[in-house]
């Protein structure tokens, strides 16, 4: 049982206890029926977000002709006189992540691979390639075409409660 569903079960139990113990206006001494408590719980469940299974994020654009990458890249900044690596991060509202890399001037096939496992190919002339990062929270990726390569990493953060927001 996932943590999310455990929280839902606790919420439902709390609602039942609350509904049974607190009388409604105009019903000073009459306890709530089980059917009414069940109905109110079902109404409350409609407000609980349904998890999104996958979210796709564009990471940037790779030019195989030059090897240049324009997008989410690690930067080095000097803070208090010392170099500090600033790894890019994204926040997604889904369980699984998919990463899309735009491609410009691809005259040869393009390959994206993850050090943590997995790879994806795009044929020559393609304008993008997408790879599944699943539930990874840190991704070390490499994009290659011919002799041109770019490597970097990305941090993927997920919301505490995944699902539609209102």
Give an overview of the whole structure.
There is one protein chain. The protein is α+β, with helices and mostly antiparallel strands and 166 residues long. The chain has two domains: 3-45, no CATH class; 54-158, Immunoglobulin-like (Sandwich), CATH 2.60.40. It is 19% helix and 43% strand. It is built from two helices and eleven strands, in the order ααβββββββββββ. It has helices at 3-21, 34-45, and strands spanning 54-63, 68-71, 75-79, 82-86, 89-92, 96-103, 110-114, 119-122, 128-134, 138-145, 148-158. The strands form three sheets. It has a five-stranded mixed beta sheet, with no helix packed on it. Strands 2-1-6-9 form a four-stranded mixed beta sheet, with no helix packed on it. A hairpin with a 4-residue loop joins strand 7 (110-114) and strand 8. Helix 1 (3-21) crosses helix 2. The protein is elongated. The two termini are 26 Å apart. The model has no long low-confidence stretch (mean pLDDT 83).
């Amino acid at each position: 049982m996932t943590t999310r569903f455990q929280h839902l079960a606790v919420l439902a139990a709390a609602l039942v206890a609350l509904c049974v113990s607190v009388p409604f206006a105009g019903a000073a001494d009459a306890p709530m029926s089980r059917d009414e408590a069940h109905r109110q719980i079902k109404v409350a469940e409609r407000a609980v977000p349904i998890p999104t299974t996958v979210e796709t994020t564009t990471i940037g654009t790779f030019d195989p002709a030059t090897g240049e990458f324009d997008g989410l890249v690690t930067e080095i900044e000097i803070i208090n006189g010392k170099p500090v690596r600033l790894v890019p991060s994204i926040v997604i509202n889904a369980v699984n992540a998919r990463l899309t890399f735009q491609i410009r001037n691809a005259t040869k096939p393009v390959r994206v691979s993850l050090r943590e496992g997995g790879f994806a190919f795009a044929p020559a002339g393609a304008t993008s390639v997408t790879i599944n990062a699943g539930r990874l929270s840190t991704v070390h990726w490499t994009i290659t075409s011919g002799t041109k390569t770019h490597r970097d990493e990305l941090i993927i953060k997920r919301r505490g409660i995944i699902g539609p927001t209102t």
